[in-house]
Amino acid sequence: MSLTTRTLAGVVFISALAGLSAQQGAIDPNAVPVEKEPQHHLVFSNDFIRVVDARLPPGYKTLSHTHANDNVAITISPGREDAAAMARIGRAGFSKGGYSHIATNAGTIELRFIVVELLPGTEKSTAAAFLDSPAHRLETENDRVRIYRIKLAPGESLPEHRHKGAFLAVTVSGGAGPGSFEWHNDGAANSIQAGPSALEIVELEPR
Predict the structure, then answer these.
(1) β-bridge pairing 32-33 and 65-67
(2) pTM score > 0.85 for this model?
(3) Which of 4, 74, 98, 189 is deepest in the core (most CB within 10 A)?
(4) What Rg value do the Cα atoms of the chain yield, rounded?
(5) Structural domain tally of the chain?
(6) One domain, residues 48 and 101
(7) Domain boundary at 118, 149, 179, which?
(8) pLDDT in tens, 96-151
(9) Phi, psi of 160 (to 5 degrees)
(10) Helical residues (DSSP H) of the chain, grouped into ranges
């Protein structure tokens, strides 16, 4: 199957995640929806997003499965334990929906992503971006999502803050544990305290 520039870029991004090989192209009519792939588990949904926890053990090859919606994949475990792979933990990559692929974890440890699907058909948020601070920064912005990153040293705190739009907070390390997440409605107050270990959170604000 030939690959478009967009899907080729997606393969490069996905394959760069240590231990994962992937084939990505147009929609395969025989593919299963992403939530029907045995190692992709739908764990949360509302009017704005769906959250899929993808956990591929070493050597696992997925069924051909379709990502119909635009999505952000956050790396929780990279499939390998070398320094280059471990440095990719927490990476959040945006992909346009409308493709099917097969992925293989060729590494020696679990390959895990929290995949956040951005659902169509909802009113677009017109909220302004949350202002950067030393511990809370806007990392990516496009017409579908804003991606923020929070990094706190052990014992450090982030004072109560309010996004003007609803958002999902995904823990990368520390806190409630890698891969845990929490949905916050518009204007909800959110204060964050790191425990004895460093805390890293990715916040996704649908647009």
Answers:
(1) parallel
(2) yes
(3) 74
(4) 17
(5) 2
(6) yes
(7) 118
(8) 999 999 999 999 999 999 999 999 976 667 788 888 899 999 999 999 999 999 99
(9) -50, 130
(10) 5-16, 83-86
